[in-house]
Amino acid sequence: MDYRAYIAERLPIEGMTAAEIAESITVPPDTSLGDYALPCFKFAKLMRKPPARIAEELAAKYPADEVISGAFAVNGYLNFKVNAKGLAGETLARIAEEGARYGSSAFGAGKTVCIDYSSVNIAKPFHIGHLSTTVLGGALYRIFSFLGYRAVGINHLGDYGTQFGKLICAYKRWGNEADVQARGIHAINELYVRFNSEATEEMEAEAREYFRLIEQGDEEAVGLFARFKELTLEYVRKIYGRLHVTFDSYAGESFYIDKMGPVIDELKEKGLLVESRGAQVVDLEPYGMPPFIVLRSDGASLYGTRDLAAAFYRKQTYDFEKCLYVVAYQQNLHFKQLFKVLELMGKEWAKDMVHVAYGMVSLEDGAMSTRQGKVVWLEDVIDRCVEKALGVVTEKNPALENKEEVAEKVGVGAVVFGALYNNKIKDIVFSYEKALNFDGETSVYVQYTCARASSVLAKAEPGWENAAVLSPNAQESDLIKAIAEFPDTVKAAAEKYEPSLVARFCVDVAQKFNKFYFDCKILQAESEESRRFRLRLTGATLTVLTNALTLLGIGVPEKM
Fold this sequence. Notes:
The chain is α/β, with parallel strands linked by helices. Among the domains are: about 80 residues, 2-Layer Sandwich (Gyrase A, domain 2); about 80 residues, no CATH class; about 150 residues, Isoleucyl-tRNA Synthetase, Domain 1 (Orthogonal Bundle), CATH 1.10.730.10. It has 22 helices and twelve strands. The longest helix is centred in the middle third of the chain and has 25 residues. The protein is flat, with a radius of gyration of 28 Å.
């Protein structure tokens, strides 16, 4: 049940729709203040009364029933108490019925959302800096799909530019085919780094010539470029597999080369292209931004030009409701420019373009990728986390079967959760020790909670799934309220493009379950009715946490 909507429909406020009232209803930080609260301050001007008086008058009129047991005013807030037994019955029944679909909806049915994320560069390392865009985009892809949208995951590959001429030049000079065959992208990356450190004017000219040959379709140059691209994709797909990330399109920059012409022509027709120092630009100075360069003075396009072509292609191909770009905040200006150009071109759908910005990731020693080849490979971070997880799991449970499989779920989960737990715009300092803490705000803590719930249920006799609902005590009630919030949490995560809401939900539910676990006897409950009810609550909690972790791309071990 959508309790906000239920309350709003029974709360007539002149000049406000039920949907507007529902959007204003919040969950108080202190449960003693109620289960839901409506701040009345925003109604003061509309109703020409003090907020406290508005809350008191609305409380007096609100009809209590079997769903909402009462409404009362506190300092300008109208607070509501949910009927605890009614909430328990409704929530547990819904979880039992919907199972793995609990929290999903048809909210986005018939709508498409394009999500541009990860977007690796061909022949360059998949480093720690790619972590956030990859797992943020992957989580948003799953969240929007869960809400009924048609999600289109796009890996906008960096596969165009003079760097590929440099790579061919380096390969022709120093490449060892056996080494490339054995080490793939690692060998290619070393060649690229060597070129940048040893390049002469002659080599730079040679690299430009190789890139020109790629553009002209030279068989050898195109063949080498295609091989480097395939080696890169073969490598990154292995990492994507471990992170549970998928894509529907790998259309990169090169895909849009033959699609830029019509866009440039339209810019010219609409009088938006002007010359500036020999380049063709869209003047954005009236809007407080530098010019958007479409063609350089030598006639060459830039990645912004290809981004314009990509935006047109995506709208024509997918007719998206929203088009998201999960790209670091350093590109804020670029996307403001891109969206403004689309707006100036008269594209009404420019308002549906969204830059989902995020902060940077570094390790505790400050290490990040550099252009000199000093990179922290993402696979190395994952491998080290899995290795540490194996040690921790072995120490906790030496007799555990499938320890390597569990360590993979725990280690990968720690990496993913570490990137998703905080608000996406914050910079992240990744700590192996903190990420693998069984007692912290970590995926390990949540996974261990799931294993604890699984262990309890494994010891129970069949039939608890249909247990009668009792009036819950304080700990049971707190847990039920928490898991009942999952559908709203998922929806809010999509609306705010903020998977951290789901990650924090996981920790909150895990904390409430563990309090319930320690304060309330489950298998040794005081009565058979209570035992069965608590087992049913345990099963529901496990379902909800599993659903939430799955949305984040994190596996759930049965034992730890």
